[in-house]
Amino acid sequence: METIATATLAQQVDTPNYDRQRLSTKLVHLGFGAFHRAHQGVYTDDLARLGDSDWGYCEVNLMGGEQLIEQLRGQDHLYSVVEKNADGPVTKVIGCVRESLHCDMDGKHAVIEKMAEPQVAIVSLTITEKGYCSDANTGLLDASNLAILHDLEFPNTPNSAIGYLVEALRVRRIRGLPAFTIMSCDNLQENGRVARDAVIGFARLLDAELAGWIQDNVSFPCTMVDRIVPAATAETLADIANLLGVEDPCGIACESFRQWVIEDDFVAGRPEWNLVGAEFVSDVVPFEEMKLRMLNGSHSFLAYLGYLAGYEHIADTMADPAFKKAALSLMLDEQATTLFMPEWTDLAAYAAMLIDRFCNINIKHRTWQIAMDGSLKLPPRLLNSIRFHLQRGSDFKCLALAVAGWMRYVSAVDESGEPIDVKDPMAKALKSICDQHGHTKSVVKALVGVEVIFAEDLAANQIFINTVERAYETLCELGAKKAVEKLLVD
Ligand SMILES: NC(=O)c1ccc[n+]([C@@H]2O[C@H](COP(=O)([O-])OP(=O)(O)OC[C@H]3O[C@@H](n4cnc5c(N)ncnc54)[C@H](O)[C@@H]3O)[C@@H](O)[C@H]2O)c1
What we know:
The protein has 22 helices and eleven strands. By secondary structure, it is α/β, with parallel strands linked by helices.
């Protein structure tokens, strides 16, 4: 059967223009999932296309994804990425993967030996939040996690990614080899710190000397990653086959935007990802905040108010000119102004890019999906910015309407009286508060009293309560669509 490696591909497909043999597996990646293929894989391939880079990947799956690894091997480790611009798709074949392993197919030892090879300089991770075996409240290693308990007993045949990393580092140390950098690319706040706490926390329980060596020799740069990469469906794969001219079971589709901000702290060298659009910085935290407030904050605004106005997707919401203008005003006037960024950061250009991404009709991002888990999302996305404005005495009418939109949404009844399927760990408690008050402004004070969301300071702030009450009344009187239009004339 023809594969992406053997077939003559459609003319418009962009294939690797470099000698793949020159790449060495200096990068081992744990978590060959959707995101890695469309993000770090694309940056590293773009770099190889520039000419001098010899950085190649060994892809490893530790949990599930056996078939994907098998399929990747069946096509000489080539796979395709379709970037969906608003004006059409761009199809690329990615050539920077040279090898692959799966712990259940190749054995745990093979994975550890690969990570212990002298040329390996970086082990990167997209293993989802669960992969770090951290305690959700403290952020530190959860020593009662079953995989960790197993790995403490059998450290040479680990189950957790953390166990693999520590075992590979132990082997390198006894062989007199230098350590590698551990780079998390998972969507966690301060992901490098989370990885460090888990790895060093585990090593301490195992062997204090090894833990000390890791502390002194391994770096854990934080990264901020951004690109929307939905899981591939049968429809996605059929689209990709059409574009390529052959089936690619490892193919993935994503938006055209991508961003990668990386703390420049690598103990054994790194690719020059900056040559293909990544940014190396000394501190990633301000960029995380920029993303949370400008991207995620405006996403929440669009999700609650867009849903209430009857829009299914973010792109549909953005097709309403009032919502589009209000989203930009929220980003520039009420979120960007709260940030402390390096001088060279162009927040106006960042906002313009976000607006373009949100308008992309090829990306089907549901308002309902983004509206999920508001009780966890509100503080970092909206409330911290409101605190800033309260302190400065500056205006926050868009943020207040977003909070009012969330309050109206968690009543679980939409503007035409239909039920809303609210997904939130606190959904029941929030609905019960709303039921006691109905859609009257008294619900605002009652909801602001939920301490885990608003904390004592906001519950005691009359300016905050008054502003949200006014927004809530407007929202209930006029409906979401008109309330957003009114924002622009006030
Ligand atoms: N998809 C996106 O749009 C997107 C955007 C930004 C960031 N991310 C981040 O990328 C990460 C992966 O997302 P994805 O979309 O690729 O998901 P995915 O389901 O396609 O891939 C998940 C990967 O994680 C591995 N994994 C899962 N649990 C594990 C565990 N306990 N130990 C070791 N490995 C484990 C799986 O083997 C798989 O390779 C997530 O943390 C997500 O936050 C995704």
